[in-house]
Write a structure and sequence with these properties.
314 residues, alpha+beta, six-stranded mixed sheet, 15 strands, 25% helix
């Protein structure tokens, strides 16, 4: 069996933000009466975000991302509330706090403000909770960047429990966006192509990646990005799996692409370096044993899992 024959969709519990446990209960979003009652439900829990950073309870040396209503009000007034869904019938909401409170909240001993990447890399919460926190962060970032109507320029307001914005001036409706990104390994038999972004830590190599453009298929975007960044031509493309990525709001679409050329021409505006790696080298990289100190992306990232699948597939 080869990389392009018989590989089924691969999902991993280790993929950051990819495991959701909430029932989004979209039919409840426009039920204002239910939303009001749900927020007062003793079982309701609240995820707090301030300045794009999760606010966590810290008590007895333990962290908790889910606040009761009383505890959330003790932190700060809600600037915006978002209905995230139901966790075993218990409503879960996101609360956006005033960004100007960030330093005050960080100084409190009963709270910890920890960025999303650290939460997942340190495995602080269950995969389902990490997904909910990431969703809240991405949604509040969208509201922050889309507070004005893109049609007429007038202020818009959040409706549908935070899942839509409405412009009263021109009656336009605006919905949350997710930007699709292809992330892939070009493979040529027993070697694969990886690159180094200028902002990567020293020694880090990873899959190539890039945003899809309007009118493109996943396959077309995969081939275009590989060629633009490295000059490598590819043929067959195989979808593997996907990962929500709340930085600020993308969907990483993982693929293999079959190389039809091998001579690399680097786009210096995009990459500091690109090279072919043997499958044995990938195994060493994943084990942290490469003789030149080359490292892989962390396990929270889809790139790590694409590399691992390549290393484990004959």
């Amino acid at each position: 069996m080869t990389l392009f024959e018989g590989i089924s969709e691969t999902a991993s519990a280790d993929l950051g933000f990819a495991t959701a446990s909430l029932d989004r209960a979209g039919w409840r979003r426009d039920d204002d009466r239910w939303q009001s009652m749900a927020q007062d439900d003793p079982l309701a829990r609240f995820i707090l975000i301030c300045n794009d950073t999760p606010v966590l309870q810290f008590e007895g040396g333990k962290l908790d991302a889910l606040f009761t209503l009383a505890r959330s009000r003790n932190v700060a007034p809600a600037r915006q509330v978002l209905f995230l869904g139901l966790e075993r019938e218990a409503p879960v909401f996101g609360i956006h706090l005033d960004p100007q409170l960030f330093d005050d909240l960080k100084a409190r001993t009963d709270l910890k403000l920890i960025d999303m990447r650290s939460i997942v890399m340190q495995d602080l919460f269950s995969a389902g909770t990490a997904n909910a926190i990431g969703t809240a962060k991405a949604m509040f970032m969208w509201h922050k960047r889309h507070s004005f109507c893109s049609h007429c320029g007038q202020p818009s307001k959040a409706v549908s429990a935070g899942w839509k914005r409405h412009c009263e001036a021109c009656k336009s409706e605006h919905f949350p966006r997710t930007d699709p990104v292809v992330i892939m390994l070009a493979v040529d038999g027993d070697k694969c192509l990886m690159g180094r972004s200028p902002h990567f830590p020293e020694g880090r190599y990873s899959c190539l990646a890039g945003f899809m453009e309007p009118g493109e298929t996943i396959e077309q975007a995969t081939r275009r990005e590989i060629f633009e960044e490295t000059g490598i031509r590819t043929g067959r493309v195989r979808y593997l799996t996907a990962q929500p990525w709340p930085f600020p709001s993308s969907l990483m679409i993982g693929c293999f692409a079959e190389a039809t050329s091998t001579e690399i021409t680097i786009d210096a505006a995009e990459l500091a370096d690109a090279r072919w790696f043997s499958r044995d080298e990938i195994r060493l990289i994943l084990r942290g044993e490469h003789p030149k100190g080359i490292t892989a992306p962390p396990e929270m990232a889809i790139a790590h899992h694409i590399m691992r699948l390549y290393a484990e597939t004959a």
